[in-house]
């Protein structure tokens, strides 16, 4: 089964016995409906979504949101804190400042970066009020972008519904950035095997993982970048410094919650190998992988891992 | 007209992503968009020129028949109304989501006999207590209003008990799965009125968009109405999943003959009600057809239905619904000798005949020739929504602060506060229910059923 949502193609593969086909199909429909619900609430592209209303008005006055949106933001704030701000939903102004929001990127003035940085950081800039169910911004210009976590969160909600509906074996993926697995693809199999594509060599795999009741997220420096002052500037920005991430090309995370893996893969891409000990200590369930360019550049990648999920790691593709 | 450029830019981008099936059906006609948010502008423009032979009429006043429906409660400084929502399936949870935004909605209880669903409801209403026995909510004096969103065949007992307990009642549509139950509910509601507000969930009656369009219908913009057509198309099994066979059985009551009025009573009822309302009449007869073509999974009600309703004056409504194909989505169309009006996805368009008289407000409305084979249909934009940063006409129904259930909830709570009858009361709910159940009967028997006045009478 497949459906379009959040500008991606979502697919569910259900591996339960086919004698309950009608129930399984209904379960899949419900899971997709939930993904659409999450999109309706969180999409930054839909003017009617809770998040769009917050982005428009929360600097003027606290904006009433639905309780699930508030708990989503609470969780995002906790993940921001747990990654020392390497993952943060408020990074938008920096993206704009570097010309990556809708453009190909351009070198900004230092002052512009400094200005944009004041708008970044959930802890400093976003007030979540549980009693009033409202969200407020500390200053005008703050902007929440659920991009780095929205799909993982929708996927988690959908998996919960599949589980509640009695589905025991299924794989659900969002585009190809996050994948969540329930059970196994066949009786006796250890789990669902999922390959991580090599970031620089098409058709080659960097590693593969075997997922059982776990999720995998991959974040990579594909896509937008520009050259200036003799070096390349990628589109992944470090919310803490306001500068593009330098040498990390790919980060991958395996953990029980797809919301966590989605946020942590982004954080790890920003933190690089230096962030491994901190994230490993704070997320003991998580398996982490970071790939960066080798010393010569263009040669095999340098790959560092935490946890035993990563099979057949092949840095040279 | 700087705004206009903005409008067009926005819409071109949005609409290019969407293949508008509807547009294909209306190639080559000029379309004027009627959007509820334009009502401010419409009210400021000169009165429409009436069709020949009629005296000048006042400008269309949206919501004239919608009572307080036209004006959603703005401020949050309204008296709170204590609410219990009974039945936490899809519809109950949609109500909880909407009530989260309705001013003064104080949801105190969420109730379902199936405790495993409580958490999902409390995610939406964290301050509400979860209960399995609705009587607990009836006993609580702080609860003034009861939402009944259980399966339709289980409404009767709860509605009667709630009215007995002196509560105001919002009963989801249809009122019931049998005419007998519907009559018992509507009769009790009538008896409790005006002290207690009874609201039947005929959502369009409280929807500003529909009330806005009705203003144009009532002022004669269509001239003589000659035909109506409604469709509802969606590819979905319409089945609910559950881990246990017992739960699955309970959840899929709408797929079984004994407990369900099928697509006509559960879905078609809303569109048939719009026709009843716009034509100010119930039908004279209904012929129905239907079969199970796509979902042969043991269900007992058709997944594809067609009905032909005859209204007074030889006007017919043709209705079709299917769960096998989503092409053309859902809409309501009214054709008149001067113009046609289409209501779809919280938006509306008017298509004028070339020989129709010009309407005074027309020059102010956004218009676009729809002759493009890609099916791009431009949606007129409202200055007010643009000022809020919204794209007018977009996603109105998924916007919880502008969806049908939001307006219905706001209308119900306002009616309670102002001690005014709901515009979607016992009579309206009962009439729609009778029409829909008879239509379902016609579908199941493949025959024609004549309506009599007595059928709609509550005595």
From TrEMBL, chain A:
Reaction(s) this enzyme catalyzes, per UniProt: L-threonyl-[protein] + FAD = FMN-L-threonyl-[protein] + AMP + H(+)
SUPFAM superfamilies, per the entry: ApbE-like (SSF143631)
Region Disordered, residue ranges: 296-317
Pfam families per the UniProt record, alphabetical: ApbE
Domain of life, source organism: Bacteria
EC code(s) of this entry: 2.7.1.180
Cofactors (names): Mg(2+); Mn(2+)
The protein's name in its UniProt record: FAD:protein FMN transferase
Similarity section: Belongs to the ApbE family.
Cofactor note: Magnesium. Can also use manganese.
Gene3D superfamilies tied to this protein: ApbE-like domains
A GO MF term: transferase activity
InterPro entries on file: ApbE, ApbE-like_sf
Keyword annotations: FAD, Flavoprotein, Magnesium, Metal-binding, Transferase
Lineage: Bacteria, Bacillati, Armatimonadota, environmental samples
